Amino acid sequence: MAKEPGSSKFQVDLRGHLRSKGVSNNLTHLICEIADASKYVINAVRTGDLGVAGTSNLYGEEQLALDVLSDRIIRKRLIHSGVVCNIASEEMETIYQAKANAGGLYSVAYDPLDGSSLVDVNLAVGTIVSIFQGPELLQPGRNQVASLYILYGPRVSLVYTVGDGVHEFTMNHLMEFTLSRENITMAPSGDIYSPGGLRNKYLPGVEQYVQYLEAKGAKLRYSGGFVPDINQILMKGKGVFFYPMLQGVPNGKLRMLFELNPMAFIIENAGGAASDGTRRILDIPVEGLDQRAPVFIGCKEDVAKAVEFLNSAPT
Ligand code: AFP
């Protein structure tokens, strides 16, 4: 379970916490710039146009005006941060080079508003960010130097890791992020499961895994938003999310660069695990912006059980 920091009238802010973790000035600046940009995304989510943008993203999916607006907000902030060389967004077709000289700089992959189609039914959505040192974005997720997400729910929270624990910040009435949970850790196993995809398209091993979870009394919790669904499992410290391979869809739906690598980096740093059913997500080579993978992510024993069912059932 997450540790509540000692109650103190001196709230720990994001910049102070990053510094206390020995994070470099450039990476501290970058993470704080992303946190600050989220304030404008929040405003767009709460008051912006819910219509379509009339364009499509690199997956050929129709973009909402909110997708385009939140993408522009974050990308401009990254470009002007002065510490980013390459940028990839789920909403952009290609990698954008912000600076040619990569010395001391970072590359960022982000999903500006994951689950954006949920905004018009007033469900929680989020921003997901993956950060690498240097110019290369197409590399295994184990090489990330940081990952974070911002959850736009009843409260706005930011969760980050730089490989030294997982920490949550909550936005206060002044729109400042202050530390709310430090060194969040997950139990070995839990009683929540968050199953994505159409059940009637599940492979036998996945179907048997669901029946195993139901038999042990696990509760189904699924909103359709990756960020709130993962956040629930992380903050309760128990459970498993999966968006599996489906009949006819061997790679599932979720994107390696923009969703799976950043979340796997966070979950592993909280003592959990993330697998595609055979490989550790963070070890999977990433060859393209549009690369997808099946995912089982959450408590270590629950993920291991999924892998066991998948590899023992006839395909
Ligand atoms: P969008 O960002 O295109 O809305 O997709 C969100 C998402 O990739 C992820 O947030 C959810 O876990 C998943 O889709 C839900 O997919 P289903 O709607 O097929 O359950």
Describe it.
The longest helix has 23 residues, at 25-47. This protein folds into two domains: 14-181, 2-Layer Sandwich (Fructose-1,6-Bisphosphatase, Chain A, domain 1), CATH 3.30.540.10; 192-312, D-Maltodextrin-Binding Protein, domain 2. By secondary structure, it is an alpha+beta fold. A hairpin with a 3-residue loop joins strand 7 and strand 8 (156-161). The chain is globular. 31% of the residues lie in helices and 24% in strands. It has seven helices and 15 strands. The protein binds 1,6-di-O-phosphono-alpha-D-fructofuranose (AFP). Residues 61, 114-117, 196, 224-226, 243, 253-254 line the site of 1,6-di-O-phosphono-alpha-D-fructofuranose.
A few lines on this structure:
The chain is of the alpha+beta class. The chain has helices at residues 14-20, 25-47, 65-81, 204-215, 226-236, 256-269, 300-312; strands at residues 52-56, 62-64, 84-89, 96-97, 106-114, 125-133, 146-152, 156-161, 166-171, 177-181, 192-195, 219-220, 240-243, 273-275, 295-298. It contains seven helices and 15 strands.
Features:
single chain, 315 residues, alpha+beta, Fructose-1,6-Bisphosphatase, Chain A, domain 1, D-Maltodextrin-Binding Protein, domain 2, 2 domains, eight-stranded mixed sheet, five-stranded mixed sheet, 7 helices, 15 strands, binds 1,6-di-O-phosphono-alpha-D-fructofuranose
